[in-house]
Every structure is written in C-alpha cells, then in structure tokens.
Design brief:
Blueprint lengths: L1 E4 L4 E4 H18 L4 H10 L4 H25 L5 H28 L2 H33 L19 E4 L4 E4 L1 H17 L4 H11 L4 H26 L5 H23 L3 H24 L14
Antiparallel strand pairs: 1-2, 3-4
Helix pairs in contact: 1-3, 1-9, 2-3, 3-8, 3-9, 4-6, 4-8, 5-10, 6-7, 6-8, 7-8
C-alpha cells in the first residue's frame, strides 16, 4: 500500500515503513540505543531526502525510547540522577547542532555532511566495539569473566564537582557525563540519532557504569534530547514529516517491548557484538553509496532564495 509523504514529497510503501520502525524498536529495547543510527540510513535507502530523514527519525526515536524505558523503570535499572546530568548536556548540544544543521542546509551541503558523519562515526565506534566484544568473549571462554574493574580510578575520578550516583554505585564529577550528553545532543541534531551508539560505550568504559543500568539510563536521556531536537527542526526548517513519523512510531513502540524481552535472554558481550556488527554493516552500505558511481551524474533541484 503506497502512501504519499507530503514533506518528503515521495510515495513509499506503508508496510515497509512499519517494518523499519519495528526493527528499530527491537534494537532500542535490546541495546539501549534510540535506533537512529539505523533508521536514518534506511530512510535514505528507500528514497527519503536526508534532511527529512534526520528530522523525522528523531521523532520516531522518542516513541521507541519511551516504550523501552518504561520496561526498564519497572525493573529499576534506570539511574535517574545520571540521566538528568546527561540530559543537561544533551539539551545544550541539541541547540548547537540544529544551528549548525540549518547553516549547512542553507549552503546546500547538509546531505553530504550527514552521510559523511555516519560513515566516520559508525566506522570508528563499530570497529572499537567489535574488537572489545571479541576480546571480552575470549576472556569469558578462558574463565576470566571480569576483564575490567568498573571502579578503577582514572583521570575521571580526579575532576571537581563530584556527585554520588547511587543506582550506578559511582562517585564521580558531573563534567564527564555532561560532555558525553553535549556530544550526543549535537549528533542527535545533525545525524537524526539518539546517540546511544556513542553514549552506551562511553557510559560503560569512560564513566564506569554497570551494563544493566546503562541501557535504561541511556534511553531516559534519549527521550528528552530527541524530543527537543524534533521540536527545533519542526519550528526552524520545517522538515518533520508527521505521516512518516506516525508510521515509524507505530512499528517502533511494538518492537521496543519485544526487544527488551530478547535483551534479557542474552549476555552483555553478545549484545555488544551484535550491536557492533549492525553498526559496521550500515557504515559499509553508506560508504559504498558515497564511493560508487551514481546512476545519474547530476540532478535538478530548486535553489533556495
């Protein structure tokens, strides 16, 4: 069943969009990521303009993350205090990112920026996560099941403005979490992502949070940052397609509940290596699209006044 998307100005199969939303919802519940790193490139692949894909996917991430975080709240695996500190940085970063996005959109360079950003960030993060997950699985097979001491003191513990995060069992400075939130907010605005693919590793390896708390806390922060990002995009550059968002949301909410249940059945190392493999797969497809010769060497588009 084909539906016409008024803002994107293209016709797309409605069941295809529902399926994409459901897939991202499953990832949200399993890995604690908003799923934007996957949904935005997939929207590129089905013909949605990058500017519309970025703004609208942020809207879908809100719904799938709400569905996922409710399940984690019931299990008490959300560090609300840490989530609020991450959120403070995230809102500031989102505001900065939207301004950068609008400037580049006026210059006609936003499509290239979005695609290149995905290739660079997904390649680096996916590669590092994949290697670390393989090492963790090897250590588990050898019987050394706790390769990293989460509370090992490093430079993070020497910073000022310390706060106690009881749910995570941490007593650290608020500066590193705020910087993590700031960077995720910028990425959310420019790339249409929740930022979980950066936030989750940072919370585990930089802040030293337990894996069982990371997923729910990440989703909590993602909800508000992506909602703020969507609002800014909708009011400044008018690229949020509500019909597209609705179809993605319907699939995403159902998928998140399924993903949360599946995630509980798998080990942390298995979850991380699956997420890394997905990140690298999407990165490879985007890189090929940038490098291969297009079927049409140029296209005509209206020039902004």
């Amino acid at each position: 069943m084909q539906v016409y998307l008024p803002i994107a100005e293209v016709s797309v199969n409605a069941f295809l969009l529902l399926g994409l939303g459901g897939l991202v919802g499953v990832l949200s519940g399993m890995f604690g990521v908003g799923g934007g790193f996957l949904i935005t490139p997939l929207l590129f692949f089905v013909g949605i303009p990058p500017a519309v894909a970025v703004a609208t996917s942020a809207n879908q991430i809100v719904a799938s993350s709400v569905s996922g975080v409710l399940a984690h709240l019931r299990r008490r695996t959300v560090d609300l205090r840490m989530g609020l500190v991450l959120l403070a940085g995230g809102l500031l970063g989102a505001g900065i990112g939207v301004q950068v996005f609008n400037i580049l959109r006026d210059l006609g360079q936003v499509d290239l920026l979005v695609r290149l950003s995905y290739v660079v960030f997904l390649g680096i993060i996916g590669g590092l996560m994949f290697l670390e997950s393989l090492q963790a699985m090897r250590r588990t097979r050898k019987g050394t099941s706790s390769p990293v001491k989460r509370h090992k003191h490093n430079w993070v513990h020497g910073l000022p403005l310390k706060m106690r995060f009881r749910t995570s069992g941490l007593y650290i400075s608020v500066l590193p979490p705020m910087l993590v939130g700031l960077s995720v907010g910028v990425l959310s605005a420019i790339m249409g992502v929740g930022g979980g693919f950066i936030m989750v590793p940072a919370m585990i390896y930089l802040l030293g949070m337990p894996t069982k708390v990371v997923v729910g806390t990440s989703l909590f922060q993602i909800i508000f940052v992506t909602a703020f990002t969507t609002l800014l995009h909708a009011t400044t550059n008018y690229t949020v397609d509500m019909l597209l968002a609705l179809l993605l949301i319907l699939g995403g909410v159902l998928g998140a509940q399924l993903g949360t249940r599946v995630g509980l059945l798998m080990k942390a190392e298995q979850l991380r290596i699956l997420l890394a493999a997905l990140v690298l797969l999407v990165c490879g497809k985007l890189a090929l699209d940038l490098l291969l010769r297009p079927s049409e060497l140029y296209s005509l588009a209206p020039v902004a006044a």
